[in-house]
Amino acid sequence: MNAMIRAALVAMTCAVACTAQAVDVASVASGLQNPWGLAFLPDGRMLVTERPGRMRIVTADGRLGEPLQGLPAVDARSQGGLLDVALDPKFASNGLVYWSYAEAGSRSESDKNGTAVARGRLQGDRLTEVSVIFRQLPKVKSTAHFGSRLVFGRDGRLFITLGDRYLMRDDAQNLGNHLGKVVRIEADGRVPADNPYVKTAGARPELWSIGHRNMQGAALNPWTGALWTHEHGPQGGDEVNLDGAGKNYGWPVITYGCEYGSCAAIGEGKAKAGMEQPLTYWVPSIAPSGMAFLTSERYAGWKGSLFVGALAGQMLVRLQLDGDKIVKEERLLTELHERIRDVRQGPDGFLYLLTDNNPGRVLRVVP
């Protein structure tokens, strides 16, 4: 059965047959302003970003620290601001933290912006030795579709998901820029020698995959080491993808979505030779954000599942896997009526969520 037919059957089956298991949430912390990204420190505390430009340490019992000092300025308009956060794989010894954010252009491009990634050393309530290790090119006059999630591979290289900036969707197929792409860099910003487009004339050497719209979820499969991503579709067509080196995921040539308002067709249809099909997709959109694989035994029968937050859908989605196939969908916490921005597994094995509100919360999912 090909991926297109399988995805349609999964969506059809789960629309009528999949029911939520009995889970609830416990509020861990509140009083955050549009929290976006979460990373657990080795001692169980959390680093949480707030889109207006703050990063805080949140204790295990929910106390909010003062904003960390040392972050560069962010362009906090509309979908822009301070976005994801991740720890260096060797954080215990080097203390390095990475974060993505919307960065304004230079004086000559002050009306433009783009996604950037910086890193710094966490020392008490400060980030020191801060440097920008990646800038999305070109900068664009837009306040939408920045991406962006940060995921370290098993080899220590950093994956960065980047949006098409909404106004530049055709550029998602252009190898000469970073719009609508996944890039892969060394932890210090250098280009890995084995990146798939390093020897392709006219291509940005940082590129890993192309043809994406706006990826706000990414996670490394803990059993295979493969990168999984998801992205927002236009009025339908949100996708989950197994993100491979040098692959083209089709946007805007193929999509299961349609134009806003009119729902007119986009591109050339839903499939084309040489372009990847999603593992599953959603019509209508759920607006996915945040993603995590569950490796713990905290929830009966759920180990090995993939969890996706939903903004417009206001729920947590469990995707049951059979290897690299998605075989079942379960919709959870719909009664919360909360926009779920991020999903993480904590060191205690529980799932943790960020709600995209002002005030926003950190929630723990409890059986």
Quick overview:
The chain is mainly β. It is built from two helices and 23 strands.
As laid out across the biggest beta sheet, the strand order is: 1-23-22-21
Structural classification: mainly beta
For the record, the CATH class is Mainly Beta
Annotation field: number of helices: 2
Gross morphology: globular
What is the averaged pLDDT score?
94
Distance between the termini: 35 Å
Say what oligomer this is: single chain
Number of DSSP-assigned strands? 23
Q: What does the radius of gyration come to?
A: 19 Å
Sequence of secondary-structure elements: HEEEEEHEEEEEEEEEEEEEEEEEE
Q: In CATH terms, what is the fold-level topology?
A: Neuraminidase
Labels describing this entry:
367 residues, 38% strand, mainly beta, 23 strands
How would you describe the overall organization of this protein?
The protein has one domain: Neuraminidase (6 Propeller), CATH 2.120.10.30. It is mainly beta and 367 residues long. The protein is built from two helices and 23 strands. The strands form six sheets. Strands 1-23-22-21 form a four-stranded antiparallel beta sheet, with no helix packed on it. A hairpin with a 5-residue loop joins strand 2 and strand 3. It is 5% helix and 38% strand. The protein has helices spanning 3-17, 91-94; strands spanning 24-32, 35-40, 46-50, 54-58, 82-87, 96-104, 113-123, 126-135, 150-152, 158-161, 182-185, 207-209, 217-220, 227-231, 238-243, 280-282, 288-293, 306-310, 315-322, 325-332, 340-345, 351-355, 360-366. Residues 1-20 have low confidence and may be disordered.
